[in-house]
Amino acid sequence: MSVRATVISQLEEIRQGSKKALLPLTDDLVLLDSGLDSLQIAILVTRLEDTLGFDPFTESDITIPPVTLGDFIGLYEHAAQSR
Amino acid sequence: MSTPPNHGRFLWEILSNKDCSSRFLWGSDGQVAIGDLLQGSCLGDRRQELTGRSVLLSTHDQLAAAVVLIELDGIASRIVICPPDITAEHFPALIEKSGADAVVSDYELPDHACRHGVLRIVAGTVSPAWFQPVEHRATEWVLLTSGTTSAPKMIVHNLASLIAPIGAGTNPGSDVVWGTFYDIRRYGGLQIFLRALLGNGSMVFCGASESPTDHLARLAGRGVTHLSGTPSHWRRALMSPEAQRISPPYIRLSGEIADQAILNTLHAFYPNAAISHAFASTEAGVAFEVKDGLAGFPASLLGRHGDVELKVIDDSLRIRSGRIASRYLDNPSRVLADEDGFVDTGDIVELCGDRYYFLGRGNGVINVGGLKVYPEEVEAVINRHPAVRMSMVRSRRNPITGSLVSADVLLKESEPDGAATIRIEILEICRQSLPPHKVPATVRYVSSLDVAAAGKLARPRA
Lengths: 83, 462
Prior knowledge:
The structure holds two protein chains of two kinds.
Chain A: H1 3-15, H2 38-52, H3 69-81
Chain B: H1 11-16, E1 24-26, E2 31-33, H2 34-38, E3 40-41, E4 54-58, H3 62-72, E5 78-81, H4 91-98, E6 102-105, E7 119-122, E8 127-128, E9 140-145, E10 153-158, H5 159-163, E11 177-180, H6 187-198, E12 202-204, H7 212-221, E13 226-229, H8 231-238, E14 250-253, H9 260-269, E15 274-281, E16 285-290, E17 297-298, E18 308-313, E19 316-321, E20 327-328, E21 343-352, E22 355-361, E23 366-368, E24 371-373, H10 375-382, E25 388-398, E26 402-411, H11 419-433, E27 442-445
Parallel strand pairs in B: 1-12, 4-5, 4-6, 5-9, 6-7, 11-12, 11-13, 13-14, 14-15, 26-27
Antiparallel strand pairs in B: 1-2, 3-8, 9-10, 10-20, 15-16, 17-22, 18-19, 19-21, 21-22, 23-24, 25-26
């Protein structure tokens, strides 16, 4: 499975329990509007670390957090390429 | 002769000694001019009934809590401040333990919330009111925090201990606008609320169901100058497009370990802001602020004599000051400070060069985005599953919330059929019994768990 597909599938799994109306997962969707709160985004990062074997957030001392889903996926794709 | 900045024995008096003509408390659904509040009430004629009472304060809206706190400090004998996760089902036990004889809320309480004979008052909007002068008293402020069981710990402060960390003349400008990602019904947020009141500024409160993005948009609209939150709050804020619309000259972090990454990230995002991180706990109060942009704190803070004294015993940070709480209300025999008056914070520190760094909690407490989780409470829930022999809950580092809850589970059978189903069921039991931050983010099956000599689980330290 590609990095992108892994991120999307894990995100969908976590947001299934969300009570909010779920917006389609497009690259320009603001992550905080995706139906995940910050705790769920934290869980997503942990599950992705277990699945992909890395966590791009802890690999740099200055990480401006991603705003959109596209930014978020890009962070993982970039980290995967540079490994 | 000018009036000392914080002259007064209770909040109303302190505010009355200031020019409040252009000061506001802004909520998501309304605002209160502090000047109006000094000549009015959200409780109307019924405020007098609360004189000398022990009051449980429970509101949906932070602004309502703020107004009631200003009104009742000096009037009630005790205010038990319920954080937002305390709901009416907790009230009977809380009323029993705190001796509360009145409940003030901003909503109609369900009938079962309290027994007959407990006064119930619903706060409304602030309207002009005049009251007979009453004899003022030192009100006890009771804050609730998580305990090892689902019953919260009740920690007693008073206005003097709460405002002791706030220097006279701090932030005297009338154009100062405070905001916090914390809730003012917890210690960290309450500190910011009191700083706003004791200075000459105004404050923006987050609404009960307001999204982080909408909250940031309002903070931007009001021109926030002083903004505080935990490192996790700040990481979340920076994920919002609205984060670019604010430019607070003062940024404060507390409630969690501020690592170098979040300090660097905030400095890069807000290059003109003075960024400080404070160490505080509900029991010990604010101990110190670090302003040099570096994680940890200078070793030179130890051994000083002054308002706050620090020492490290068995790697755990201990604090003595006039800012510490006086006692636990729910369990007066529980030790808050040692015989020399030092509170053991349970925070494990390590000396590296001339600086101490925080490693985590000595008693295994997990800090999820500023909220405490006792492993024992989560383990008790997991162990209810009939297939579980025992479990150990521990902290797992996380770049968004600092830590997450992670569970190691030892099943009764080594490889049972339906292990995947059991994992789902364990998580379901946890979701039904625990707030979201206490539900394990990951459940891992293990083949053994170490038990120490005393028969307790061998927990990894910090």
